[in-house]
Amino acid sequence: MIRKRTGLGRVVGVALVWGSLLVGVVRGAEEPADDRRARIKADMAAVQQYRAGLEQVVSFAKSRPDLFPTSRPTKARLMTREQREEVWTAWKTFLDYSIAMDSVRRAHSKTFLIVDRQVRDESFLVAYAAFLAQYRFSLDFVKLVENDPGLEVLLNDSVPELGLEKGTYSRFEFLVLNVARKAEYLAFKSIWVTTFKKPDRSSVNIDQDVAVLAKGRIQDSLLTADNALELVRKGGSLAWFPVQKGVSIWMGDTKVWRWKGGLITLEQLAVAAKKLLPGDVLLERREWYMSNVGLPGFWPHAVLYVGTPADRKEFFNDPDTRTWVMAQGQEDGDFDALLKSKYPAAYAQCTAVLEEGHVPRILEAIGEGVLFTTLEHSGAADSLCALRPRLTKKERAVALFRSFHYVGRPYDYNFDFTTDSAIVCTELVYKSYQVCPDSRGLTFPILSILGRPATPANELVHQFDATYGTADQQYDLVLFLDGQEKTRIASEGSLDEFRKSWRRPKWHVVTQGHAPAEVTVKPDVKPEAGPAI
Fold this sequence. Notes:
The two termini are 14 Å apart. The protein has 533 residues and is α+β, with helices and mostly antiparallel strands. The chain has helices spanning 8-14, 20-26, 33-63, 81-107, 117-145, 149-155, 168-177, 179-194, 206-215, 225-236, 245-253, 266-273, 309-315, 319-327, 335-342, 344-350, 375-378, 393-404, 425-432, 457-467, 495-500, and strands spanning 281-285, 301-305, 360-366, 369-374, 383-389, 447-449, 452-454, 475-484, 489-492. Helices cover 46% and strands 9% of the residues. α5 (117-145) packs antiparallel against α8 (179-194).
């Protein structure tokens, strides 16, 4: 999961709450102009993130003619299971980014209700940039697929985790190639050229996407202002993608802000802290965060529980760990003294007092990079679980020692485990617990995500479920707080429910039988401008 540590604007920029999309536009007359601009800037950052995701999928497809032929095969192809899975992963990822982009575009279809001219133009810029990126890369994807009828058959299978039914690809193709979509493109361009001022677009790719679409010989005639506005209004009210009703409503009409973000309370985290030990692996889910986009499965984020210096001093005081520490050059066998000696900058961070007097207990890779956060901040999610590796204290100490090596590294937006220069959330856990001479380590399920090896957090639960009760079981479940959007409560879940949680739909909130209320609640922190991704 890509998530920022503090400041709502920064959170929204890379971990956008679904409800934020409409607050600043539908209620434009009630929201302060500065807040609206902050939200618009955050939405533009989200558009750029999702555009990069769509482009990545198309680039991957173009680089793999064995999966996406450059010309029509002379005979039917029989793809291997591995090839089918790679095509399937690319399609699911493309749809995931597309649905998110659709939500941003539809949110800003209310542009014309905003009175402030500058804010209105900036909102239109978001809608136009989202439309162009969606249109351009959707056309690219359709062109790649149409070379092989067998691909259409494969992609028309249902995608339950995204709420998509059988025949999705055919409906998607119809919506993309429909003449109404071309008319909408011309309407957007007419408004851009004749009606709206040109806000700063240095951080977007409008000109590039227009140029690419023009090469596709899309008719470049302009419409009258009235006709163009009407077409954009109509187009903005409809989703591009054939999602189920629940997903569509949630994606386009949600107007809810939670006062305190996650469903898990500080009281629950205080109880959880008493159960946790250094080296535990925590998995987190935030239902309303668009940072889930592009990450497969119900569980999108993994972190390491490092505890406090007092926790580590008490836990790592056994003979085996002290002997290993002394072998690393720390003569008194004090594990924390070893950390401070080998990684002084990182150790200073892990002992600093952070938000509201809380101390760091978590090491995680988020949007700001690999850093220490508090349990009260990181654990304030909607669902949370803690897995305890079945390893010795010494082996857990080895893992934490190795994890300190990565503190300060940037976040890896490419989700690539083959490099150390940037780190993604599960990669931090993976590289900390790799097998080495001093530790048996843990084994991790490695999947190919757009040609790159990675371990999605959801696969750790899949692995736990598949190996539970066998000699290959690597973890014990310490706690499972399961959020229920309908009741707005996170309660203790059972082992059986946890084992099945990896099977949940990606947008699990839609399946819980809850239609969010049509209310708007102000956030509990003041919005700030978020950096572009």
